[in-house]
Amino acid sequence: MGNYISKIFAKSPVGPIQEHMGTCYRCAKELITFFGYVVAEDWEGAEASRATIVALENEADDFKKQIRSQLPKSLLMPVPREDLLELLLVQDRIANRARDVSGLVLGRRMRLPAPIQEGFLAFVSRNIDAAKKARKSIRELDELYETGFRGAEAELVESLVHELDQIENDTDEMQVKLRSELFAIEQDLPPIDAMFLYRIIELTGDIGDMAERIGRRLEVLLCH
Amino acid sequence: MEDQVIYLVLAGVFGLFMAWGIGANDVANAMATSIGSGALTIRKALIVAAVFEFTGAVLAGGEVTSTIRSGIVEASFVVDEPQLLIYGMLAALLSAAIWLLVASRRGWPVSTTHSIVGAIVGFAVVAFGVSSVRWGQVGTIVASWVVSPLTAGLFAYFIFSSIQWLILTREDPLHRARKYAPFYVFITVALISLVTIFKGLSHVGLTLTTPQAYAVSFGFALIVALIGRFFILRIKVDKRAEKKFHYATVERVFGVLMVITACSMAFAHGSNDVANAIGPVAAVISVAQTGVVGQQSALSFWILLLGGGGIVLGLATFGRHVIATVGAGITSLTPTRGFSAELAAASTIVLASGTGIPVSTTHTLVGAVLGVGMARGISAINLGVVGRIFVSWMVTIPAGAAITIVIFYLLRFLLG
User: Fold this and answer.
1) B interface test, pick of A1, A5, A79 with most B CB neighbours within 10 Å
2) Which positions in chain B touch A143 (Cβ < 8 Å)?
3) Is A148 at the interface with chain B, CB within 8 A?
4) A24, B319, B389, B396: which could join B114 in a potential S-S bond, CB 3.0 to 4.6 Å?
5) A11: phi then psi, degrees, rounded to nearest 5
6) pTM of the model
7) 60-119 of A, contacting B, C-beta below 8 A
8) Mean pLDDT calculated for residue range A67-80
């Protein structure tokens, strides 16, 4: 039995994009648990936590592939396909960074030097805050589609993106401070450890940057 | 005399078969958006379809039926060999019905309108020669197949844009939806009643003066709008489903409006597509009785009843299954969108019915959906499928013509 009329309506990518963001956020959030184990030097716990991160990252990857495959070029959509794919890519990088950071720390059994421990944990959690705000903004995506990306709902999303920017500013400042704290003690650390600590800070900071870029992508969607 | 009885019986049976096919398969396309958006359950859709397809066919189906009956073949060519027209119209009915059934089973997007027009042109060329076809009229019809989806698309674009501008983009969309929704109901009902009263009712034997027509239309529209308002105000906010702006409740308000546009769609579909079944029947009957393609003789009321009844029969037997299948595939269409598309399509089709132009309900609805899509209303429309649907009519016309010609020769051999 043919139902070609219903085939006109392609599956909406909105729900899957929101779910993908949810998964990426949960993946990044697991870093807090992970670093809890790292600080306690509980490597078994860290390993279990890392397994959760990898599983969530894989789940996000599957979502991403599935969404891409249901976005062929012949779709008429309210926003350009490229912008949605770009948004998806940025969301996905949040999960990727969580995987990279946890992999590096676990692989090298890295210890966080006591002087920067507190600052680093705060820095991680602020980056996760940024990801959370990004998720909150993405949760408005279905409402944006409802209104045609205009009006009061668009203003609401703009204000969310503004809050997101402020959190990202915080993470930038924390990152600068954290690096200078590390610089102050780097003489006392094995050089390679110090190098990788800088690298971990940088990768963790990427989560906040990616969250901010999600905000930029949303603004692009609002401009069309 | 005996021949006449055979012709009348055959025409009645084939016409009923065609109407049944339209009811079983074609109506589903008209109702699908209402079910897909959740505005109607399948059971309610069946009832709405049965009632309004029937009233549409009987009250507003006359003009298009006249076009199919006597607008395509030049009457002067038929006088010498009237039985050829009878064979031809019977063949056209049978081939369009077969084509509709095959295509529906296979899932090909065909239009009954396109196949019946192709069929009539096909046999007329074979039976009476190329010059027997009123090419001017056929040209108008074919042009309308391009114009009707475009018009519906344009209507839909502006209707949906107005909903965005008046309701969706505002700070208080729910309040505004409750306020403006009855106006949309009023416009919908007034427009469709006006066209029906001006153009359709004369075939039922009712004539109203212009002021009377306006008074009746606006009065009726006002009553329906007030009833709609009553239901709209009863809708309560569902806190669990809501974010800040109550869009889920706004959609439920439009769910009420969609019940009205679903009725309009069924009415419009009945008014235009019933002609595909009973236009040829009417032609056979007038020729069998008078020997010419009766242009003056009035369309018998019972033929409209036959068409409307056949459609309801088709709905009752197979409609449920087909409507369920088509409706289930449409889930991304919310009531604000479905309302815009249906209102645009129904208005366009009823206008065409009033002018006596046979258009494709499906193509018009697809045009309307595209219009909503252009206004950024639909999250993803499959343009490939849309393209295939629009291309299909080019295939349908020669196919309808070819099958008809074969059946025409068969009938002439068997009956002649």
Assistant:
1) A5
2) 243, 245, 247
3) yes
4) B396
5) -65, 135
6) 0.90
7) 71-72, 74-79
8) 91
* Reported ipTM: 0.86
Q: Which helix (H) or strand (E) holds A87?
A: helix A81-107
Q: Which residue of B has its CA nearest to A224?
A: B376
How much of chain B, in percent, has pLDDT values that exceed 70?
96
Domains and CATH numbers, chain A: 13-223 (1.20.58.220)
Task: For residue B386, give the amino acid letter.
Answer: V
Adjacent-strand bridge partners of A75: B382
Q: Which two tokens stand for residue B25?
A: 């398969």
Domain with B162, as residue range(s), is 2-415
**Helix/strand/coil for B381:** strand
- Is pLDDT above 90 for A204? yes
User: What distance in Å separates residue A145's CA from the closest CA in chain B?
Assistant: 7
Number of domains in chain B: 1
Kind and range of the H or E run holding B84: helix B82-106
Residue of B107, B244, B376 with shortest CB distance to A148: B376
How remote is the C-alpha of A101 from its chain's centroid? 13
Please tell me the predicted confidence (pLDDT) of residue B327. 75
Q: How many CB atoms within 10 Å of residue A158?
A: 14
Q: What is residue A205's predicted lDDT score, i.e. its pLDDT?
A: 96
pLDDT of residue B294: 52
